[in-house]
Specification:
With 154 residues, chain A is α+β, with helices and mostly antiparallel strands. Helix content of chain A is 18%, strand content 37%. The termini of chain A are far apart. Classes of the chains: A alpha+beta (154), B mainly beta (108).
């Protein structure tokens, strides 16, 4: 499997952007999700426990010229045995109309916990990868993607 | 909807213990329900909701897809092979329509 570069956590640009858009969004029907929506989903998945930041390998572009097709790949270190494996991985995005992007369900038979897909990003935002392990642990990684041309139409 | 066609790449042969990479793509518009056509009419939501893979009859991997997944959903995942067998791929649309593909692998 290809290993992506390790991503540093950085929410600053997303928060700055939210500040700029905050007023216009608040006065209308909410068109985009917010970091609070993502936090609520994470809280829901982890039954309120939250997920510690972990050093998962994420492969996401820093800048996406076309928000319609943004490659997202992840690889999570796990022995993938019956005793110790990743059960689910969620991809969440805090600036799309809906924060949930995909949920992957893994089995120990796979041997390696990794996957690649392509997602739409409406604007510059943070993308989160949340993993659930069979022993009830969770882990999370996050990356900011700057989007030049948004990908949710309208 | 005859244009919707599954594609996949699975190695024909592998050695036991090898981790192979499986690539899949389904030609599908993944209409999010938020886009208007040229006349300004809303294009109704029409997406692939789930993708699942069985190997020799047992589930090894599945994905729940939301409208934020790009058109022509492309999914790549690893699999550690130990025996020869058959992969059954299944995509399910929100209309209930199913798309299927089968691939075989010989493990030595």
């Amino acid at each position: 499997m290809k290993k992506g570069r390790s991503i540093e956590i950085n929410r600053r640009s997303a928060l700055a952007l939210l500040g700029a858009f905050g007023l216009s969004v608040a006065s209308n029907r909410p068109l985009f999700a917010s970091p609070e929506d993502v936090e609520a989903i994470i809280s829901d998945i982890t039954s309120g426990a939250g997920a510690p930041m972990s050093d998962f390998y994420l492969d996401l572009p820093e800048i996406a010229e076309n928000g319609n097709q943004v490659k997202v790949a992840f690889e999570i270190d796990s022995p993938m045995t019956n005793e110790d494996h990743v059960t689910e991985v969620y991809i969440l995005a805090d600036g799309n109309p809906a924060p949930s992007v995909a949920k992957f369900t893994f089995s120990p038979e796979m041997g390696v916990c990794a996957a690649t897909t392509r997602m739409r990003l409406a604007k510059t935002q943070d993308v989160y990868v949340l993993a659930a392990f069979n022993d009830g642990r969770f882990g999370m990684a996050q990356s900011t993607v700057k989007v030049t041309i948004g990908g949710c139409g309208g | 909807m005859s244009s919707i066609k599954p594609r996949g790449k699975v190695p024909k042969e592998a050695s036991a213990g090898e981790v192979i990479e499986i690539k899949t793509l389904l030609r599908h518009p993944m209409h999010s329900g938020r886009v208007k056509d040229a006349e300004g009419n809303n294009i109704p939501k029409n997406i692939i909701e789930s993708f699942s893979v069985n190997f020799n009859g047992s589930r090894i991997f599945s994905v729940n897809l939301e409208p934020s997944i790009s058109s022509n959903p492309y999914i790549v995942f690893p699999f550690k092979v130990s025996v020869s067998g058959t992969f059954d791929f299944l995509w399910v649309e929100d209309t209930g329509q199913e798309y299927k593909m089968t691939k075989k692998i010989t493990v030595s």
